[in-house]
Amino acid sequence: MNEYNFAYLDEQTKRMIRRAILKGLAVPGYQVPFASREMPMPYGWGTGGVQVSAATLTPDDTFKVIDQGADDTTNAVSIRKFFENTAGVETTEETEKATVIQTRHRIPEVKLREDQIIVYQVPIPEPLRFLEPRETETRKMHSLEEYGLMHVKLYEDISQHGAISTAYAYPVKVSGRYVMDPSPIPKFDNPKLEMDAIQLFGAGREQRIYAVPPHTQVVSLDFEDYPFEATKADHPCDLCGAEDSYLDEVIMDDAGNRMFVCSDTDYCRSRRAAGHLGRLAEEDAA
Amino acid sequence: MYVAVKGGEKAIDNAHAWLAEERRGSTDVAELSIAQIREQLSLAVNRVMAEGSLFDPDLAALAIKQARGDLIEAIFLIRAYRTTLPRFGSSNPVKTSEMTCDRRISATFKDAPGGQVLGPTFDYTHRLLDFKLAAEGELPAAPKAHPREEVTPHITEFLQGEGIIQDEPPCDDIPGDLTREPMEFPAGRPLRLQSLTRGDEGFVLGMAYSTQRGYARNHAFVGELRIGKVAVEMDIPELGFAIEIGEVELTECETVNQFKGSKTEPPQFTRGYGLVFGQSERKSIAMALVDRALRWEELGEDNLGAPAQDEEFVLSHADNIQATGFLEHIKLPHYVDFQSELELVRKLRREAEERITPKEAAE
Prior knowledge:
Chain A contains six helices and twelve strands. Chain A is of the alpha/beta class. Chain A folds into two domains: 11-128 and 169-220, 3-Layer(aba) Sandwich (Rossmann fold), CATH 3.40.50; 232-286, CATH 2.30.170. In chain A, a hairpin with a 6-residue loop joins β11 (247-251) and β12 (258-262). The two termini of chain A are 37 Å apart. Chain B has helices at 8-24, 34-40, 42-52, 57-66, 71-82, 155-161, 189-198, 201-212, 281-294, 311-317, 320-328, 335-356; strands spanning 100-105, 220-236, 241-257, 270-277. The longest helix of chain B is centred in the last third of the chain and has 22 residues, at 335-356. Chain B: Pfam families: PhnI.
């Protein structure tokens, strides 16, 4: 694919995206409109993340792509291949070796460093969208810092269900100002949003980029008497025994037996390589 | 025993190989050529060019072949290709009044300068399957006439002369470009028209139909529908004047709509406008109706709360490439979100049961 520019997009487009990224970093949590391009993969399949990655990557970078925490899910494979072909950058599955990580729905378990950038794929960047469908209204609400509707929603959840019934894409307030959608990560990952790495969020179809700079305060919305709680399945990983990682539930047989495994495949692999074994680890020796 | 879902890369390659085979179909049947698609499925080619926003019949035909006839997939291929093209500049506005018309009809005047020219239309064909087409054979040649040499004036010009139709003053502002700037609302008419002309034919048709059925009704007459070729001219700075760089086939529809007047405007006829690449009649008429419905504010009409009056609603949902991508993305894995929902629902059920069942009676 030598006929395409480095990382597919032309330099003008990358410059336009970088401007949006810089603006996003300058105003943490603010959704910056950008002229999203039509990419050779469908809208809703990571076009925002791909454009942000394309504008971020340099030839010296090492790139990692995960979807649902895993490097080998089909769309992660497809995006990794896209950049192997169009940018020729080195790719890796090891979180620690990557300089740019594009992710869908997860934050890696390993703490990210200052010299790393994580790029989130975002389907609906507007945290208020399901409370108010109009962009003209939600932009006004953000500019007036009018988040009462969101608190009412959370309150109604508690009064109806006894708990805040949002399990993923749990809204956060960034740097005491903007309410932000952290993309559909499980709320288990929310505490990790305060990190050392740069976090960039790209929503291609909705034409928005936003960012959280390193060491920025990110607070999950809650109430004093109903504090935010990061939850996961109450099991250790059946392969590596990890007690601290987010787990996927896998149905194993017709009787409906379940096992729980790390959703972060690289974390699980490196733990097993270091000799940590879970309940069903021997059977997985193959 | 647990087998991790590995081998995504291999599976993808194999799926694509199978897809290629399915696309070709049985090799006992001759392969379609691009020229055959371009010449014999020209209305499909036109739709792909219109919604792909790229006038190139050969590329559109190739896209249709590659997409196995799935026109939205073909439009997607064209869009993705289009974004990689460098932009040399922009043409001057095309002069549809100088169109060489293959077809030109008016529903508002029985006759007018330029006449009624039916052209190659399905109208008045009886929709009976023609089994002769199942057997291959030569067609008798269609009768020919001398083409009209003079320009064919727009019908609305005659109404305008009488001052009975809303004036459309010329404007030299450079319109925005929805492919280069993020859409913001209110978008304004130039961006609305851009969005509608590349919008999904089915969506625009449905929106237009809803206005006919009473959701912001603005009874429309087809003042004029014309199809033909227009020259595309561009100013070349080195030359200091415009030269013709090619020609495109267009369908243009101008509707004449009833209007009783409002607080700000006297009673007069109003207009809706549709302009689409290729021979795309249904789309251009639908576009004109939706355009007219979206103009309620500038004409001082009431907002009736109808979907077709709602610019943000129409423009946000007209694009089939955006729509299909987002719709189909729910096929992608969502294990992580689903897992978090599972945990939550289990927790809520547990708590609800504990509330209902007194502790000592619990099993």
